[in-house]
Each structure stands twice: as C-alpha cells, then as structure tokens.
Amino acid sequence: MSAHPPDGTPPDRRWQALTICLVAAFMTLLDVSIVNVALPSIRSGLGASPDGLQWILSGYAVAFGLALVPAGRLGDARSRRAVFMTGLALFTLSSAAGGLARTVLWLVVARLVQGVAAGILNPQIAGLIQVLFRGRERGRAFGALGATIGIATAAGPLLGGLLISLAGTQDGWRWVFYVNVPVGLVALPLAWRLLPPPGEGRRRESLDPVGVILLGVGVVALLLPFVQEQQWHGSVKWLLVPAAVVVLAGFLGWERRHRQPLLDLSLFRLRSYALGSAIALLYFAGFTSIFFIFTLYLQNGLHYSALLAGLAITPFALGSAFGSTVGGRLVARFGRPLIAVGLALVALGLAATFLTVRAVPGDHAALATALPLLVGGIGSGLVISPNQAITLSEVPPEGGGSAAGVLQTGQRIGTAVGIAAVGAVFFAAVGTTHGDWAEAFRHGLVVVTAFVLIALCAAVFDVFARRRPAP
User: Fold this and answer.
1) How many CB atoms lie within 10 A of CB 189?
2) pLDDT (tens digit, 9 = 90+) per residue, 6-25?
3) pLDDT for the residue numbered 199
4) For the chain, what is the total number of helices (H) and then of strands (E)?
5) Crossing angle for the helix pair 271-296 and 11-33, to the nearest 10 degrees
C-alpha cells in the first residue's frame, strides 16, 4: 500500500482529518439520545405538552433521515469539504438557537434544522473515509467511526444527566444544546484546513431534483407514523406506510430511467452492499431501542436520576468502544463472520440482561446488569464498524457519499421502526402489569433480541453462501 492515497493527502493529515470528522459525527449522533433524559427538564422549563416533547425527539430523527441521501449525492457531485462545513456551521447555529429557545415551537424548529444539518454532515464522513483510506487502514478508520457511533449513542444519557445535574432542572436542558457550540466553532476552521478539497476536473453532475423530492416524500411518509406512534392515536397514521411504498416505488422507477440518478441502483447488485444495508437496518432497530426502554425503566420504574440512569448505560458504551477498535483491525482478516460473532454476543448480553433483571429486581438492577451490558456493548462494536466497512468495501470512492447516505437512511428507518415496535410492547406491558416497569422492560428486551437474531440469521446466511462453491 502506498503512503499517500490518490488525493495526495499526507498520511498524518489524513488521521487529523478523520479526527475532525469523528468529532462532528459524535456531536450529531449524541443529539439522537442526549435529549431523552432532558425531556423532564424541558417540560419543566418550557411547559411543553407530550406532543411538543415528542416532536422535539422525532423531528430531529425525521429531518436527519430526510437529508442523508441528497446530501451524500451533493458531496459526491460537488465538494465534500464544502458540504461538510455547511452542515457543521448549520448544526452549530441551530444548537445555539435550541439553547436560546423561549417557546416549544422555537425549540421544535431548531431541532428540525439540527436534524437537517446532521443529515448533511454524516454522509460526507463515510465518503471522506472512502477517499482518504485504503485496505486495512480503511478498516481502522471505520473502526474509529463505529466506536464513535457506539459511544455517542450510549453516552448521550450520561452526558445529558451530568449537564442537567450541574445546571439545574429548570434550565439544565439548555446546556444539552449549548455544549455543541464551542466544539463546532473550533472544528470549523480545522475542517477547512485539514479536509481535502475537491479533486481537479470533477464533473458537475445533475443533482436529480425530482428524485430528491420523491425520496424525501417517501422517507417522511414512512418514518412519520413510527416516530409518532405513541402520540398520534388511531390507525389512520398507518395509511402513510402503503402511501410511502407507492411513492418509493415511483422513485425507483424514476431512478432507473434517469441518466444521472440520485441513487445508483446497481449498488444493490453487490451482495456486500445489499446484505450489509439489511443487517444495519435490522440491528439499529434493536440497538437504539435498548437505551430507550432501559432509561424509561430506570427513571420511571426505579426513580433513578438522569445522571444515574446515564451511568447505568456506561458499560455498554465502554464495551462498544473496545469492540469497535478491535473490529476495525480484524475486519479485513475475518470479514462477515466477525459480524456474526458480534451479533451473537449482543444476543447473549441481552438474554443475560433479561435474566438478571428478573433475578435482581429493585434498585440494584443497574449494577447487576453492568456485566451483561458490557458483553452486549463489545458485540455491538464488532457489528457496527465492521459492517459499515464491508458494506462500502466494493463501492467506488467517488460514490461513497451517496452510498453512505442510503446506508444511514436505512439505519434511521430501522431506529424509528424499532423504537415504535419496542415502545408499543413496552408501554402495553406497563398497562397490563399495573405499572410493573421491570416486567415491561423484559417484554421490550424480547422484541429487541428478535431484531438482533434476525440480523444474525442474515449474517450467517452470507457466511455460508460465500463458502458455497460457485456453479
């Protein structure tokens, strides 16, 4: 392997550029989970209704998913550095606006803009890794990204709880948003200095506005009933799902006929990409739901503070960081079997957590679940970063942003579907068991484990399919 990648960036600067990308990824993914523990503080500070609180959470997720693919395409066709910096600047400004919010509507709009900014940023990160790194170094880079994803998602409740305990219940939630501002202000000039400029002679391709509109409408229609499952009562909302299928089918038909499509459908002929995207969707349906129901169980059932609830999830974050680092180094050697091992470890950790909560009820449950969550976190680290590296391994670097956007859109859809499904089972169990939060948590864990086991079946299928001799 040569010391310099095709874009000519010096080796030291490549890792410095990756650090800037990981800081941005951490900020945007932290905001997926950090707001969960801030909701009581927001309700107290702004007098927010349940509907308002739901939109503060779900608006970010919907806007995030909406922007991913168009932003990935824009970075591929124009300049990843310019698009990255635009997203980072917008995220920093919207975070400041969220912290300054005086009404619920103001905060909801700030969260929507934050979500769009996060969707603009994230595809550029995977696209830049595709361009800057090759071979084993790419696996290490994706390992670092996977560790960042795992830590950011799991550390959100801890950091949020710490900020609220320090700043007070009334206005502590504002610091959940303010904390992004100094980081963004420092990262912006460093991004300009360290990220590679667009290559010379880059062709200015069409951005496919019709495809963008069709995909946007389809994604919003698909996500909305899931992210609003608890607040939008009645069955009418589910009519949006078949409507979304129709719109997305129209999007695929348009893309097949378009000379410069928003989404290169030939990517799904690559088994590594198609199967990896399916595993990501299924795994994120379970992965992010764990923190959702565990935090509710600890805070509502055991009356833990936001800080203690966040501390209880820390073992998973530590395990995920370790597993991602190891997975990034081993993925080139072991490939998909490594992901299957990771999924098996996650399922084992969840099963042990289920049994532990039954055996150790009450206030000591968080301490008792530390080891099972650590095992699950290690397994999670062996899934996220290796799967992303394998999924994008055969994608040409010039299309890395678009491909990463599609992959991450699947992750966002999986997250929304998983939280809706697990949340529905969890809250139904709370009602039928007369407020037994431990029993509801175990019911939710069963659904989470089911998603992980289906993803494991897909990974095992791929392992055996690759060993089968070609006809």
Assistant:
1) 10
2) 555 666 788 899 999 999 99
3) 65
4) 17, 0
5) 50
**138-162 burial, b if ≥16 CB within 10 A, otherwise e?**
bbbbbbbbbbbbbbbbbbbbbbbbb
CATH no., domain 11-195+208-467: 1.20.1250.20
- Give me the amino acid identity at 324: S
- Is the distance from CB of 429 to CB of 443 less than 8 angstroms? yes
DSSP one-letter string for 250-294: HHHHHHHH-SS-SS-GGGGGSHHHHHHHHHHHHHHHHHHHHHHHH
Tell me if 366 sits within 8 A of 298, measured CB to CB.
Answer: yes
Supply the pLDDT for residue 343: 95
Regions of the chain where pLDDT drops below 50: 1-3, 200-201, 470-471
- In a 10 Å sphere around its CB, with 0-12 CB exposed, 13-18 middle and 19+ buried, how is residue 3 labelled? exposed
Q: Are 204 and 217 in contact (CB under 8 A)?
A: no
On whether the CB atoms of residues 386 and 324 are closer than 8 A, the answer is no
Total length of the chain: 471
Query: Cα–chain-centroid distance for residue 21?
Result: 15
Beta carbons of 455 and 279 less than 8 angstroms apart: yes
User: In whole angstroms, how large is the CA radius of gyration of the chain?
Assistant: 21
Q: Is the distance from CB of 127 to CB of 400 less than 8 angstroms?
A: yes
- CA–CA separation, 286 and 327 (whole Å): 20
CA distance 302 to 298: 5
Sign for the pseudo-dihedral over CA of 338, 341, 347, 348: negative
Sorted by where each begins, the domain ranges of the chain are 11-195+208-467
Closest-CA residue to 99 (of 181, 26, 164, 30)? 181
Instruction: Give long-range contacts, CB 8 A cutoff, 24+ apart: 395-398.
Output: 395/130, 395/267, 395/270, 395/273, 397/6, 397/127, 397/130, 397/131, 398/76
